[in-house]
Design brief:
Largest sheet: 8 strands, mixed
Order of helices and strands: EHEEHEEHHEHEEEEE
Distance between the termini: 56 Å
Number of strands: 11
Length: 243
């Protein structure tokens, strides 16, 4: 079957501790994740239907359409998804709460006419998703909902320039050694509610994507049609309903 090589941005997520919850709970959290991913990709300007998706059972791998800006897969996508999952967790019981490991990479892959994708970049993506640094980050920060590991290449192309919504200082270099892969990557744990380290509360207003900075600063995101989430880095999170 004819294949073409294309440069694609690659995104993968894995649900932490999905085993042992039972079929009903797993199906519920898979649905919440799928809905959250669809909405977050759409808000980032990436057509979900044009993405090539592979179900990982307790996660998903997404190959973005050719030409997708790598920056859009960090902001607003990562921060929007994190905000949505936080909102879900506030109301969910323990069996259906969701925490995610996330990984980002980009490279030249083979794309078949049937939508299959193969190539070394996918192997790198899988190693990043399973890497010890991203696992340890969530284990050491139980309040965090998500943790992201991006490849050195992705960091150079999408993070270093400090585009709107992406704070390079919020990423930390780590060493990764997983199976045949060894190299550097960059870890980012989106801001989460914890012991407040700053005074004041979030303003009573919504903000556009351009007004919503990333990293350990204030993030203001529309989490659903029913309200707005205000998340303060290392601070508090408030949910305000529409009046």
């Amino acid at each position: 079957m004819e294949e073409v090589r294309e440069y694609r941005a690659l995104f993968a997520v894995d649900i932490v501790g999905s085993s042992g919850r039972g079929d009903v709970a797993l199906e519920q959290i898979r649905q919440v994740l799928s809905t959250g991913l669809h909405a977050s990709f759409t808000r980032g300007g990436v057509d979900w239907d044009d993405c090539l998706r592979h179900d990982l059972g307790d996660g998903m791998r997404v190959v973005a359409p050719a030409g997708t800006p790598e920056t859009s897969l960090i902001h607003p996508l990562v921060h929007e998804l994190t905000a949505r999952l936080r909102a879900h967790n506030l109301l969910a019981g323990e069996p259906t709460r969701i925490r995610l490991r996330m990984a980002l990479h980009a490279g030249s892959v083979q794309v078949g006419r049937d939508g299959t994708v193969s190539g070394r970049p996918l192997e790198v993506l899988a190693r990043l998703l399973d890497a010890e640094p991203v696992r340890a980050a969530l284990a050491q920060a139980p309040e965090a909902t998500t943790a992201l590991l991006v490849s050195e290449h992705f960091h150079e192309t999408a993070v270093c320039q400090g585009r709107p919504g992406i704070d390079p200082a919020a990423f930390r270099r780590v060493d990764v050694r997983e199976k045949e892969f060894a190299g550097s990557a960059w870890l980012h744990v989106p801001a989460y509610g914890g012991a407040p380290q700053a005074t004041g509360s979030a303003p009573d207003r919504t903000a556009s994507d351009a007004d919503a900075p990333a990293g350990n600063t204030k993030v203001i995101s529309k989490a659903s049609g029913h309200g707005v989430i205000y998340a303060l880095g290392n601070g508090t999170m408030n949910i305000g309903g529409k009046r």
